[in-house]
Write a structure and sequence with these properties.
A hairpin with a 5-residue loop joins strand 3 and strand 4. The N terminus and C terminus are likely disordered. Helix content is 54%, strand content 7%. It folds into 4 domains: 113 residues, Alpha-Beta Complex (Conserved hypothetical protein from pyrococcus furiosus pfu- 392566-001, ParB domain), CATH 3.90.1530.10; 74 residues, no CATH class; 72 residues; 35 residues. The protein is of the alpha/beta class and 326 residues long. The protein is flat, with a radius of gyration of 29 Å. It starts with 37 loop residues before the first strand and ends in an 8-residue tail after the last helix.
């Protein structure tokens, strides 16, 4: 097996430290066929895990991988577990499974092991985080799902514990002992090399992002820092317009921050809003003028139009003069 990146130190789940287990990355070749865990399975007998943390798959990336499989054959191995009905569920490697299906492959190599629901989720998180393959949203929601499972609490309760009991002021108090819940949560986060305060102040912010920013970040078009910066705009139209500009022009964070600051300060947004009616009227007038050829054919009307245009140009050039009443 090829070399792998160092894995975060794991904690035991039902007596099994799965973070030290086998994690396959796309460039890693399958284990020798003599290993009883590695077998070929029909693609049709494999299904994705609905709780897996990765929610977005690039169609372009899958197509490229499928083309590679068609040319060179399937590479790597999926991590799967067998379900009660005899089918197999993906623990790690759904992207490769999708590509194999698209490539029309009948079978793929799989490493079959037993995993509880909790172990399967944790394994998938590790596999993706090692390759920095999850968006901040996927990372956050995957870890929250794991916390829910370990502590037996709801998502809202988990967030509340992190926000309230995880606050630095609360943790610094000597008269209040940390609860078992916050200690368990810290253990989960430390297993993924994420500090409690980073998760509290950064990761949880993804939950309150507007939907369009979530989607852009989830699809890899918008960085987490840019998404958070744009979310500071409360005006939906301003936010939408800036998002489109950032995606089209691929603006760096520095420019995004500058534009957000300018919009929040009211320049140019408030000015544009105040002057928009007259700008719209100018646009309408220009469109009418382009269609009004009959006006240009009549000497008197043409002369009057030329005079009006001269007055408008003088006004715009000076910025201070007013149209005369002639």
């Amino acid at each position: 097996m090829g070399s792998q990146k160092p894995k975060p130190t794991g904690f035991n789940l039902q007596g099994r430290g799965i973070l030290g287990g086998l994690v396959n990355t796309p460039d890693v070749k399958a284990q020798p066929s003599g290993d009883p865990r590695t077998i070929s399975l029909p693609v049709s007998q494999i299904q994705p895990n609905p709780k897996q943390p990765r929610r977005f798959f690039s169609e372009e990336g899958i197509a490229q991988l499928a083309a590679s499989f068609q040319k060179d054959g399937f590479r790597g191995a999926l991590n799967v577990r067998q379900l009660e009905d005899g089918s197999y569920q993906i623990v790690a490697g759904e992207r490769r499974w999708r590509a194999a299906k698209q490539a029309g492959l009948n079978e793929v190599l799989c490493i079959v092991e037993e995993y509880s629901d909790e172990e399967a989720l944790e394994f998938a998180l590790v596999e993706n985080l090692q390759r920095e393959d999850l968006s901040k949203i996927e990372e956050t929601e995957g870890i929250l799902t794991l916390i829910e499972s370990r502590l037996g609490i709801s998502r809202d309760q988990a967030v509340s514990v992190i926000q309230v009991e995880g606050h630095p002021d609360r943790l610094a108090r000597s008269d209040v002992a940390p609860s078992d819940a916050i200690l368990e949560i810290q253990a989960v986060l430390e297993a993924f090399n994420i500090s409690l305060q980073t998760f509290r102040t950064k990761n949880l912010r993804t939950l309150s992002l507007p939907d369009e920013l979530k989607q852009a970040h989830l699809e890899g078009q918008l960085s987490y820092s840019c998404a958070v910066e744009i979310s500071k705009l409360k005006d939906e139209s301003q936010r939408s317009q800036l998002l489109n500009e950032v995606l089209e022009q691929k603006l760096p964070f520095r420019q995004v921050k500058e534009r957000v600051q300018a919009l929040k300060a009211g320049t140019p947004s408030e000015t544009e809003s105040e002057h928009q009616p007259i700008l719209d009227e100018l646009d309408r007038t220009l469109k009418l003028a382009k269609r009004a050829k009959t006006v240009l054919d009549k000497p008197q009307k043409r002369k009057r139009l030329e005079k009006l245009l001269s007055q408008i140009n003088a006004l715009l050039d000076s910025g201070d003069e007013h149209l005369s009443s002639g």
